[in-house]
């Protein structure tokens, strides 16, 4: 795989979920099965080593093993891949960037140091250090919703100017003024938005998405991306239904039942049924969404976004 340039990072990218067996053991063999299914969906690519892959709960040895297996699988199936070098500790991020670069990904995803904020000078040092370790691979700066540092369009423009190795950013828009202020950034690098805002984002100049919506069902997510390109009004209509589904079915799991966000992302993938055999189990000490919620979410999904749940029977024994 050759590193992608900014103008080549486009479309829908799906996350890799870890298959966790009982006792919290990672099933590395399942990576091959999952990548095979994702590659047949037609999405632009797949990424691992991020929140969906529980990067924060892997030892360095486990991370290296996961990335090696993941890269080999992606190369075998001919799908573009990004590797996350995310970590709360800056030095650990540096080491993971170097490991990721060894496997020649399309790009390397990063999150900013989050245990203690660095300030602007420290932030620049961090990114330049990661760029050096990346050895020619482009960087994708990911700012998750729970990040302490909330960068402004002006800061993004400064960073992408001072650190030309940044080829993309993945962040959450905050409205019309944000899109207007981000236009100079969009002219320099690829800007990726949350999956549930893909139609709006593409219509306002963004370039794609790395998201849990693609994780929920990469086949449906890719068809939605193609629909947006052909008929933006139809794409926006489906976006509204996706957001309604998220607000009605998924947010209560986070706000009322207190499940972590990465648990809900994995649960959506299991609920839609696109990846046979995938279990919603997480590594200790995190709670995963229990089976008792499956039927309710599947019924809601079939009603609101049947495109993502078309192969699920809510009356089956599995859904009960």
What topology emerges from the helices and strands here?
Blueprint: E1 11-15, H1 30-39, E2 45-48, H2 60-77, E3 81-84, H3 90-102, E4 107-110, H4 119-134, E5 139-142, H5 153-162, E6 166-170, H6 176-181, H7 183-188, E7 190-192, H8 198-203, E8 208-210, H9 212-216, H10 218-230, H11 232-255, H12 261-272, H13 294-304, H14 306-309
Helix pairs in contact: 1-2, 2-3, 3-4, 10-11, 11-13, 12-13
Brief synopsis:
By secondary structure, the chain is of the alpha/beta class.
Structural class: alpha/beta
Residue-averaged pLDDT: 93
- Give me the number of helical elements: 14
Q: What's the CATH H-level homologous superfamily?
A: Aldolase class I
From the 3D coordinates, which CATH architecture would you assign?
Answer: Alpha-Beta Barrel
- Low-confidence region ranges: 316-320
Largest sheet geometry = 8 strands, parallel
Round the Cα radius of gyration to an integer and report it.
Answer: 19 Å
Fraction of residues in β-strands? 5-15%
Strand order of the largest sheet: 7-6-5-4-3-2-1-8
